[in-house]
Amino acid sequence: MISRLKTMFVNIWDSLLNGNSSFRLGIYGAPNSGKTTLANRMCKDITSNEESSDSDDSGSKKLFSDISNVAHETRKVSVKEKLLINRNGKKMIFDLVDTPGIATRIDYEVFVKAGLTQKEAKQRAREATKGVIESIKWLENVDIVIIMIDATKSPYNQVNLTIVGNLEARKIPFMIVANKTDLKSSKIEKIQAAFPKYKVVGISAKFSQNMDKLYDELLVLKRKVKR
Amino acid sequence: MLNIHYLSYGDLSSLDSNGRVSKILPLLRNGNVVIIDHVLHSKDEALLIRETMNSIDEDFNGMEIGVLRDNVGRNLLSKLRHRLAKYLVGDRTGITLIGPAKIISELRQHPENIELHFNREYLKKHSAAKK
Q1: B86 lies within 8 A of chain A by CB
Q2: What CATH architecture is A2-222?
Q3: pLDDT tens string A102-111
């Protein structure tokens, strides 16, 4: 009850001070780039920083969907509302939108190879196609975007470039996050070379490395949100 | 047999986004690799991905797409030429390669080239069927 009142008070106070303080943050990227891992990490970080009305009995923030090595684990857009981050006295209130990975091909046989039955694989493929469509539609509903790129893979993937192009065209502020920097095969300099116009933040969402930098960058982007 | 279909700027420029996607998608579904002599607008690309997802079924499992942008040289003449092209057709100088995922097993994009890896089994099967 107290935490709810506190969140409500902060919301009102912040919106009085800055009309644009609350925003909707979308996490976009190709499948298996670590979008849901980041969303879950942010939820955990927020719990450790602030009390929140969306916590479960143990006090932990409720998390997004499960993660796995099989592509298209997240097949629906999910939103956590009114998250609150406090960075050195500067508060950010936002809705966090975790989106299914955007792909140009979906082959149920890949899921069969990963151990699913034919029926399960076909169902997963159907859901995955709907997820991609939903992700693209949601581009109209976000104020800031984090583009997740797997730093162990080539960044010259048309999905990444299409997302960047669409955000530029819609004038939506975004940052490029190179994930999985804990892995030896990660090459953040390659991601930076592919997107020379933009600052690339390297993180490991799994091991919570360099998350402070990501939150600082988010504060910078927040100022660019147009309402 | 492998069919390659060429679409020029003139073929697509008079159409709206839906028209452009409606022209490209049936070609992919029919097993053509499509070469477009310019870069599609990113909104067209997003629409193409969306409509590709809408049409996935047992026979069509999507596409591979890659874009090679015109590399702007450092010298003045090259920059002027690029600016002129940009003024005339928008920032569209480059080429777009799109292929059905059943035929293109992988498309690797690099800053200065694109590698197309064909699905040998598919091509073998279809060339055998033609014989």
Answers
A1: no
A2: 3-Layer(aba) Sandwich (3.40)
A3: 999 998 888 8
